[in-house]
Design a protein that fits this description.
755 residues, alpha/beta, 8-stranded mixed beta sheet, 16% strand
Length: 755
């Protein structure tokens, strides 16, 4: 007699076992070195250093949930150790593997030490030049462009999240101080989800992640904090210890999934179908929160009608790949638990239907009365603690500057209006279509590209087209710390400081702690911070043409940092001045750990909106209706998520990290591999309409048969680059709050053959 499958077995559609997962991760060289291992810990291991060290306060500025508070130990002017700050209950004395590698990053033999000029872009024939020579050549080009075009729109900025410290918005300020220029706007990271939460609630605002210990039922949907937010895991473990149930919904059996009570493998980009199926079950069984809906929401009747007329559990099961009884059980448990929460990962909104899928998940949290509840909430991110002055970013244009006669503001998730009212404006272009736009933008064309806090060749899409675009540019200036592929395609590279060589301040888009970043060591070699580079460029520009640049010629980063604080920041964090942060990070004084605790939503109606007129104004459906995923154009779906020991193109290039991650792989399901005659360790070629690449194969049933997976990373001596097979197809949302739609990063397809 055939044994009937349990509910848990049905959830794991790929029949993935813990044993096979361990085998897979061990094969990938990661399991043994994972922070926290495979079980919870009672306390972080802390290191006690002895000796006459001078201790400084720093903060990790990378684009990461955790934004760790760091204590840095310096002796004789040399950074010798770092550890997490114990004053922050979020960082709690520990760093991730990447964070502990910071001293090696500072003193890496591969670091760019001086300004360099490449004789023939892409030739590798680099020549050391002085700062004065570099700035003379760049300033001359800027003035040449202004003379030729009668404006500076031919100068463009491509900058994003390589360093999220507040004063690094001075790069945008430097551009403004030169005149009206071209800006690549938007974000590849999280825009569709930001718009979704704004349509539903009027802002993106998540509960304090530390209050997840109050949760009774936790769904992590499309996220992998065991890799990407390791400090949040201890709060999840504590919740589990108190009896909470942890559900992970993901196309991939991740390390977070390995720690869950239930793992539900979902078909990629079918999250909306599952959320709608769960909502249907909750309404049919009268489990929705009528008090919340009647007092604090708008449009539920329309949503309920849509569910009644268009959604069945059988339909949701067919679309999502999740069995009907799993949908029922998950919906019932979520609706009946005391405090239920969903952590919405950024990966699930990187689809052509990503924004509307987030809205469908938001609705689940709202209809069960879990919005505004401690331990509850639809957790995505927040910018509640980012109310700085942005003094470095807001700079005046030189007198007589001419620009673009169009939109008057620059949108971003961090600041909506940089330039204010003016006769002219900067020219804005979608940052996610940089290759296409460099090739096609005219009147005037983009002639000079300034790259800062970003590695476009590793992070931007359609690498083959990007190469053509860079070849068209007249000059490329890149500010960076390592000779990555973007630098290889530049004319001049300017060496930038690490976080330990400058003053700045850091807030998080996830937790509610604020950290100062002190200058712990002198600038290494001839490296300069973005602010110092702006000041030096301003001096040179005014030497060549007085009045051509308004950027303050201040090279002391401490002065810039001090100007970012205001009374609002002081009051929010309970400090009198930034100097209070020298004693350790401070947490915002929260009235409640719950977002929307007062039920005063930021929507036009002031309520949670199941039906949003604003969404309709931006071309979407009013309610979160099902939207089909991108149609496949090749045999396998290609997933390119973040790697464990790197962040985009950072960290993996360090020699110290090679012990943890000594080479890339493409992961393929054993059944699919068998059909392709591919064995573990074989070199394979991945090909699609964008391009192709070769890499070694690893077999694992952590992914479904129709999926191949490669982690985004930059290895300094390899040509590996996932952007060779990722195009720039837009996601559905993002324009409302960030100025441009996101990218359907995980709606990519390719075929694979053994080489």
């Amino acid at each position: 007699m055939k044994k009937k499958k349990s509910l848990t077995e049905k959830c794991i559609l790929g029949a993935t076992s813990r044993r096979s997962f361990l085998k897979g991760t061990l094969a990938a060289g990661v399991a043994a070195s994972v922070p926290l291992g495979f079980k919870s810990v009672h306390a972080w291991e802390r290191t006690n250093f002895e000796g006459n060290y001078k201790i400084y306060r720093n903060a990790c500025p990378r684009n990461c949930y955790d934004t760790c508070s760091i204590k840095s130990y310096v002796k004789n002017g040399s950074l010798e150790f770092v550890e997490g700050a114990t004053e922050s209950t979020f960082t709690d004395g520990a760093l991730c593997v990447k964070g502990f590698s910071y001293p090696r990053r500072v003193y890496s033999p591969d670091r760019i030490k001086y300004p360099m000029k490449q004789i023939g872009r892409g030739t590798g024939n680099w020549k050391r030049i002085t700062w004065d020579e570099a700035l003379e050549e760049i300033s001359g080009k800027i003035l040449e462009i202004k003379e030729k075009d009668d404006n500076l729109l031919g100068m463009a900025l491509d900058k994003y999240s390589g360093n999220f410290s507040i004063t690094h918005y001075g790069v945008e300020g430097m551009m403004s101080s030169l005149g009206y220029t071209t800006r690549f706007v938007g974000t590849p990271c999280w825009p569709a989800g930001i718009d979704a939460q704004n349509f539903d609630m009027g802002n993106m605002w998540c509960n304090d992640p530390e209050d997840i210990v109050k949760s009774d039922y936790i769904i992590i949907w499309g996220g992998n904090p065991a890799w990407n937010s390791v400090h949040t895991m201890k709060f999840i473990y504590e919740a589990q210890k108190r009896g909470a149930k942890l559900i992970v919904i993901d196309p991939v059996f991740t390390q977070t999934a390995a720690k869950a009570d239930i793992f539900i493998r979902i078909k990629t980009a079918q999250d909306g179908a599952l959320a709608l199926g769960m909502a249907k079950y909750i309404v049919e069984n009268n489990m929705h929160d009528k008090d919340f809906i009647s007092k604090h929401s708008k449009g539920f009747k329309s949503y309920e009608k849509y569910l009644k007329n268009n959604v069945t559990l059988e339909w949701a099961a067919e679309k999502s790949g999740v069995p009907v009884d799993v949908i029922k059980n998950t919906a019932r448990e979520f609706a009946s638990a005391g405090a239920s929460t969903i952590w919405i990962g950024y990966g699930l909104q990187r689809h052509t239907n990503g924004g509307v899928n987030v809205r469908a998940i938001d609705s689940l949290v709202a209809m069960t009365g879990n919005v505004g509840k401690e331990g509850g909430g639809a957790r995505y991110g927040h910018l509640q603690t980012w109310g700085f002055n942005y003094n470095a970013m807001v700079q005046k244009k030189p007198k007589g500057s001419k620009g673009y006669l169009g939109e008057k503001t620059i949108k971003s998730e961090f600041a909506n209006d940089e330039s204010g009212k003016a006769d002219y404006s900067d020219r804005t272009i979608n940052i996610n279509k940089i290759a296409e736009k460099i090739l096609t933008t005219d009147n005037p064309p983009i002639r000079l590209l300034w790259v800062a806090c970003k590695n476009p060749f590793a992070q931007d899409f359609d690498r083959p087209k990007l190469k053509k675009a860079f070849d068209k540019l007249e000059m490329v200036v890149t500010v960076d710390q390592f000779f990555n592929e973007t630098v290889e395609n530049s004319d001049i590279v300017l060496p930038s400081t690490t976080l330990f060589e400058e003053y700045t301040v850091n807030a998080s888009y996830w937790h509610y702690w604020l950290s100062i970043n002190e200058k712990a060591i002198p600038e290494q070699y001839e490296a300069k911070s973005d602010l110092q580079i702006g000041a030096m460029l301003s001096k040179k520009m005014n030497e060549l043409e007085p009045g051509s640049c308004t950027f303050p010629q201040i090279t002391d980063t401490k002065i810039w940092m001090e100007k970012e604080f205001n009374d609002g920041i002081h009051k929010l964090f309970g400090i009198k001045s930034w100097k209070d942060l020298k004693n350790g990070p401070k947490k915002a004084k929260l009235k409640s750990t719950a977002s929307w605790y007062d039920m005063k939503f930021g929507t036009p109606s002031g309520k949670y909106e199941f039906s949003s007129d604003l969404a309709a104004d931006y071309g979407h459906t009013k309610i979160p209706e099902y939207k089909s995923r991108r149609e496949a154009y090749d045999k396998f779906r290609v997933l390119t998520p973040h790697t464990q020991f790197g962040l985009h193109s950072q960290f993996v290039n360090l020699d110290y990290m090679e012990d943890f991650n000594n080479g890339p792989f493409i992961y393929i399901n054993p059944k699919a591999a068998k059909n392709k005659n591919i064995k573990d360790g074989d070199t394979v070629k991945i090909t699609n309409k964008v391009g192709n690449m070769e890499v070694r194969a690893r077999l694992t049933d952590n992914i479904a048969e129709d999926v191949i997976l490669m982690y985004e990373a930059w290895y300094k001596d390899l040509k590996y680059n996932v952007q060779n097979v990722v195009d720039d197809e837009s996601s559905d949302m993002g324009t409302f709050k960030t100025g441009a739609p996101g990218v359907a990063i995980h709606d990519q397809f390719a075929d694979i053959v053994k080489v």
